[in-house]
TrEMBL record:
<feature type="binding site">
    <location>
        <position position="600"/>
    </location>
    <ligand>
        <name>an N-acyl-D-mannosamine</name>
    </ligand>
</feature>
<dbReference type="GO" id="GO:0005524">
    <property type="term" value="F:ATP binding"/>
</dbReference>
<dbReference type="InterPro" id="IPR000600">
    <property type="entry name" value="ROK"/>
</dbReference>
<dbReference type="GO" id="GO:0046380">
    <property type="term" value="P:N-acetylneuraminate biosynthetic process"/>
</dbReference>
<feature type="binding site">
    <location>
        <position position="619"/>
    </location>
    <ligand>
        <name>an N-acyl-D-mannosamine</name>
    </ligand>
</feature>
<dbReference type="Pfam" id="PF00480">
    <property type="entry name" value="ROK"/>
</dbReference>
<feature type="active site">
    <location>
        <position position="548"/>
    </location>
</feature>
<feature type="binding site">
    <location>
        <position position="600"/>
    </location>
    <ligand>
        <name>Zn(2+)</name>
    </ligand>
</feature>
<keyword id="KW-0067">ATP-binding</keyword>
<comment type="similarity">
    <text>In the N-terminal section; belongs to the UDP-N-acetylglucosamine 2-epimerase family.</text>
</comment>
<dbReference type="InterPro" id="IPR043129">
    <property type="entry name" value="ATPase_NBD"/>
</dbReference>
<protein>
    <recommendedName>
        <fullName>Bifunctional UDP-N-acetylglucosamine 2-epimerase/N-acetylmannosamine kinase</fullName>
        <ecNumber>2.7.1.60</ecNumber>
        <ecNumber>3.2.1.183</ecNumber>
    </recommendedName>
</protein>
<keyword id="KW-0862">Zinc</keyword>
<dbReference type="GO" id="GO:0008761">
    <property type="term" value="F:UDP-N-acetylglucosamine 2-epimerase activity"/>
</dbReference>
<dbReference type="GO" id="GO:0004553">
    <property type="term" value="F:hydrolase activity, hydrolyzing O-glycosyl compounds"/>
</dbReference>
<feature type="binding site">
    <location>
        <position position="520"/>
    </location>
    <ligand>
        <name>an N-acyl-D-mannosamine</name>
    </ligand>
</feature>
<dbReference type="InterPro" id="IPR020004">
    <property type="entry name" value="UDP-GlcNAc_Epase"/>
</dbReference>
């Protein structure tokens, strides 16, 4: 990643990162954790540039807070020590780290030959340093040419290597360097599921891979600065408003320097035309950077009233700048990785990051060969706000990495072992030598209750929370946020990693925007409600929202009897009647998100009134509300109760009393149930004739009472060509919660293939 360095601090105070990680430090036993060692682990952290320090610093602070377990040596080399790139080693000193060694390893020239010569110079100087420090393990980050020199030296000197961010794919020469370091490294800390799978596919030892997330996210997700406007004004001017400026960070692509310089020129022209205040950071030290700086100066960017050109920004301030920007543009990995944590729009230019996983906030302009293309992208992205993404971390990477370091057994043979195919799945090393359960937070908004559950990838409900659904919007949204925050905190204790939030709610929903357009009468004050934004902003997780009938269908597709089927229909029989349609493996929403309102299929022209305003709908006959209405009529006429039945005075008559009376032989109750079942059966016949699915699944509390009547109606009324279609009762206990979870888990599965 190419971001800027950490904020300076007064020498007499603790740095912000150190304060943060002090909170993680707890009282520990005097005995070293079981790792085969009887002494402190000597860890050498080598940092080469402003980018890798933003990832390594959180780990360094974590190591520093546990002196009973670790000794820390810091080696600084590369562009840290060059004035043109800001002498960023000072940031390390101001973060109160003792720099054991400074190595001047950069050969100036900023071309391909200079990069090779710099690697050679580092290889000449590093052996003396490593012989003197004698570390047990060296931590190396990323994919820079300096890091390759570090890994090569350590490997040849029999020093164990922990590689941060291996397994990722970006799309340039960095991939080759990153994978080369992976083959030299003994231990691996990766940030995403895809990266973990890539490492496994590269034959790395499963037991030496930790899926931890990106260390920088520990800082990003805890960053709260109410005075962010003062930071914005300091770097961009007093007249700049939040979300009304651009951050630009573009680097040369070493495999096509001429094209990357031309693209940078087009980017600057587009930014000048776009006429918004822009903070431009100088490029890194790769081949071609000198030419890019010449382009900036040729266009007068350093003196243009709309531009502020800087060599680096302290990291604490940089994250506030990108968090409140109207857009970020360029080809920095920061844009596709870290900025997603804030939902800030990003325009990624060219091929430099094209292979990386991204949130929906990133718009790729692969062939940025005209100014108009870049301008169009700016018009599309500027000022938008996307859901916050946690693809690259959940804020708990450093504690995992420290536990991983403590588990390293120095008595084990140094020689690497490779695990050649066949490759096992999902068995990477995690915090306590067990895999965290990939899970979703599922929310079910019913007419009576509000439920939140932690649901695993296999459909197991790990833990469920239930509260009465408040009557007002404000109370309801606050309760949802409170329950989700508590569940997310509990998930950490249960060793569950939450991938996102899925919400099932009654009414018509726009799932693309995460908005409840209008709800049923059972849920009051629930029209035009944006559910995605407050949950995403609070939890820093992606959020999906859909209608409860659609969620039931998705639950059947992933966990139930619809699994593997191309076409099927789910009908929910509960307080109301709803449903969902799966066609060619996909859920059908319709042009106005009104598909599968199956409860409002009309089965009689002169039937009873329905809550939708029409009459003769299935819901007017077969819903729990309809049965309750008929039960009350019988009760008022003293025709409901039979021998063996009673209804306490303080208990309302319900559909369950009607069903109980029918089971005990009440002929009128039996007749009402037959009529309701027949209405439902006619609706199913219409579905069979319209959709021709391969399966119909009846779900909900009333499904088992209707199934036989529905099958009878199909035999009597349906065309012979569809009479063989099976109708079954769902075997899922909580289809709404499972369906809400499936939105999260299906998306995650697709993302990581």
């Amino acid at each position: 990643m190419e971001t800027s360095m950490y904020l300076c601090k007064e020498s007499c105070c603790l740095g912000p990162h150190e304060l943060y990680f002090k909170k993680l430090s707890k009282r520990k036993d005097q005995v070293m954790e079981k790792n085969g060692n009887n002494r402190k682990l000597r860890v050498c952290v080598a940092t080469c540039n402003r980018a890798d320090y933003s990832k390594l610093a959180p780990i360094m602070f974590g190591i520093k807070t546990e002196p009973e377990f670790f000794e820390l040596d810091v080696v600084v080399l590369g562009s840290h020590l060059i004035d043109d790139y800001g002498n960023t080693y000072r940031m390390i000193e101001q973060d109160d780290f003792d720099i054991n060694t400074r190595l001047h390893t950069i050969v100036r020239g900023e071309d391909e030959a200079a990069m090779v010569e710099s690697v050679g110079l580092a290889l000449v100087k590093l052996p003396d340093v490593l012989n003197r420090l004698k570390p047990d393990i060296m931590i190396v980050h990323g994919d820079r040419f300096d890091a390759l020199a570090l890994a090569t030296s350590a490997a040849l000197m029999n020093i164990r290597i922990l590689h941060i961010e291996g397994g990722e794919v970006s799309g340039t020469i960095d991939d080759s360097i990153r994978h080369a370091i992976t083959k030299l490294a003994h231990y691996h800390v990766c940030c995403t599921r895809s990266a973990e799978q890539h490492l496994i596919s590269m034959c790395e030892d499963h037991d030496r891979i930790l899926l931890a997330g990106c260390p920088s996210y520990d800082k990003l997700l805890s960053a709260k600065n109410k005075d962010y406007m003062s930071i914005i004004r300091m770097w961009l001017g007093d007249d700049v408003k939040c979300k009304d400026y651009i951050v630009a960070l573009q680097h040369p692509v070493t495999t096509d320097i001429k094209h990357s310089i031309k693209m940078f020129e087009l980017t600057l022209d587009a930014l000048i035309s776009f006429n918004k205040r822009t903070l431009v950071l100088f490029p890194n030290i790769d081949a071609g950077s000198k030419e890019m700086v010449r382009v900036m100066r040729k266009k007068g960017i350093e003196h243009h009233p709309n531009f502020r050109a800087v060599k680096h920004v302290p990291f604490d301030q940089f994250i506030q700048l990108v968090a409140h920007a109207g857009c970020m543009i360029g080809n920095s990995s920061c844009g596709v990785r870290e900025v997603g944590a804030f939902g800030t729009p990003v325009i990624n230019l060219g091929t430099r990051q094209i292979g990386r996983e991204t949130g929906e906030n990133v718009l790729h302009v692969r062939d940025a060969d005209t100014q108009d293309k870049i301008l169009q992208a700016l018009n599309l992205q500027f000022g938008k706000q996307y859901p916050c993404s946690k693809i690259y971390g959940d804020g708990n990477a450093v504690p995992r990495i420290l536990k991983f370091l403590k588990s390293i057994d120095l008595q084990e043979p140094l020689q690497k072992k490779f695990c050649f195919p066949p490759v096992k799945e999902n068995i990477s090393q995690d915090i306590d030598h067990i895999l965290e359960t990939l899970s979703a937070l599922a929310v079910d908004l019913g007419g009576t209750n509000l439920r939140v559950a932690i649901v695993s990838m296999k459909g197991e409900i790990v833990k469920k929370y239930t509260q009465f659904n408040p009557k007002t919007y404000e109370e309801r949204i606050n309760l949802i946020l409170q329950m989700c925050v508590e569940a997310a905190a509990e998930a950490v204790k249960l060793n569950c990693r939450i991938l996102g939030v899925g919400i099932s709610t009654g009414g018509r929903v726009n799932p693309q925007e995460g908005i409840v357009l209008h709800s049923t009468k059972l849920i009051q004050e629930w029209n035009s409600v944006d559910l995605r934004t407050p949950l995403s902003d609070t939890l820093h997780l992606p959020v999906w929202v859909d209608n409860d009938g659609n969620c039931a269908a998705m639950a059947e597709r992933k966990f139930g009897q619809g699994k593997g089927l191309e076409n099927f229909v789910t009908l929910i029989t509960g307080t109301g009647i709803g449903g969902g349609i799966i066609h060619q493996h996909e859920l059908i929403h319709g042009s106005s998100f009104c598909a599968a309102e199956l409860g409002h299929l009309v089965v009689s022209l002169d039937g009873p009134d329905c809550s939708c305003g029409s009459h003769g709908c299935i819901e007017a006959y077969a819903s729990g509300m309809a049965l309750q209405r008929e039960a009350k009529k019988l009760h008022d006429e003293d025709l409901l109760l039979v021998e063996g039945m009673s209804v306490p005075k303080d208990e309302a008559v319900s559909a369950l009393h009607l069903i109980q009376a029918a089971k005990l032989g009440n002929a009128k109750a039996q007749s009402i149930l037959r009529t309701a079942g027949t209405a439902l059966g006619l609706g199913v016949v219409n579905i069979l004739h319209t959709m021709n699915p391969s399966l119909v699944i009846l779900s909900g509390v009333l499904a088992s009472h209707y199934i036989h009547i529905v099958k009878d109606v199909i035999r009597q009324q349906a065309l012979s060509s569809v009479q063989d279609v099976d109708v079954v009762v769902s075997d899922l206990v909580d289809p709404a919660l499972l369906g809400a979870a499936s939105m999260v888990l299906d998306y995650t599965t697709r993302r990581i293939h």
